[in-house]
């Protein structure tokens, strides 16, 4: 009986240690080579734990250099993970390879680093006010006419100060 308890204790310690080191689980299916999000009902946003498959038009993706993919419920959660990858993924920013978001008008996957971003519009996503990605800067005038938008930015501009401005929230410490 003592041997059984020892084995159970070892299993529990190994499980607890593995969970603490590994971070959230990657998606069941990787991002397709052309950028299509292959959402599974079991995939969870590593930032807020929502299920991206429930609102696929709002989902975003991040692929690491080792091939792991993480799906997010929204662009905002993906941006938070970009700003704090060690907090939300247990990974360093240098391990991030691809960032894919969906163009607001077409719903097609686009490179998040090349998108034009709009915050402060009337568009609402799963986490509240949405941060919208546009694949073509020519769409900006039409978007703003229909939905407004207080802040327009490009990916290389996102930092802690801009995050506070567009979200009215602080990021966790690194």
Can you offer a commentary on this structure?
- This protein has one domain (24-167).
- Residues 2-21 have low confidence and may be disordered.
- Helices cover 29% and strands 22% of the residues.
- The chain has 5 helices and 9 strands, in the order αββααββββββαβα.
- The chain has 174 residues and is an alpha+beta fold.
- The protein is globular.
- Strands 2-1-3-4 form a 4-stranded antiparallel sheet. Strands 8-5-9 form a 3-stranded antiparallel sheet.
- The protein has helices at 2-22, 75-83, 85-88, 140-147, 160-167; strands at 60-64, 69-72, 96-102, 109-111, 116-121, 124-125, 128-129, 132-134, 148-154.
Summarize the structure.
Helices cover 29% and strands 22% of the residues. It has helices spanning 2-22, 75-83, 85-88, 140-147, 160-167, and strands at 60-64, 69-72, 96-102, 109-111, 116-121, 124-125, 128-129, 132-134, 148-154. It is globular.
Which terms would index this structure?
174 residues; alpha+beta; three-stranded antiparallel sheet; globular
List the SSEs and their pairings:
Layout: H1 2-22, E1 60-64, E2 69-72, H2 75-83, H3 85-88, E3 96-102, E4 109-111, E5 116-121, E6 124-125, E7 128-129, E8 132-134, H4 140-147, E9 148-154, H5 160-167
Antiparallel strand pairs: 1-2, 1-3, 3-4, 5-8, 5-9, 6-7
């Amino acid at each position: 009986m003592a041997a059984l308890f020892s084995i159970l204790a070892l299993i529990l310690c190994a499980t607890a240690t593995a969970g603490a080191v590994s971070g959230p689980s990657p998606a069941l299916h990787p991002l397709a080579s052309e950028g299509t999000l292959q959402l599974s009902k079991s995939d969870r946003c590593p930032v807020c734990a929502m299920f991206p498959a429930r609102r696929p038009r709002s989902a975003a993706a991040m692929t690491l250099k080792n091939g792991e993919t993480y799906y997010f419920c929204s662009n905002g959660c993906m941006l938070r993970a970009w700003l704090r990858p060690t907090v939300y993924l247990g990974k360093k920013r240098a391990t991030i390879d691809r960032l894919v978001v969906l163009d607001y008008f077409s719903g097609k996957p686009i490179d998040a680093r090349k998108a034009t971003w709009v915050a402060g519009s009337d568009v609402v996503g799963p986490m509240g006010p949405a941060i919208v990605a546009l694949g073509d800067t020519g769409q900006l005038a039409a978007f703003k006419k229909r939905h407004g938008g207080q802040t327009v930015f490009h990916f290389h501009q996102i930092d802690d100060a801009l995050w506070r401005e567009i979200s009215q929230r602080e990021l966790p410490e690194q």
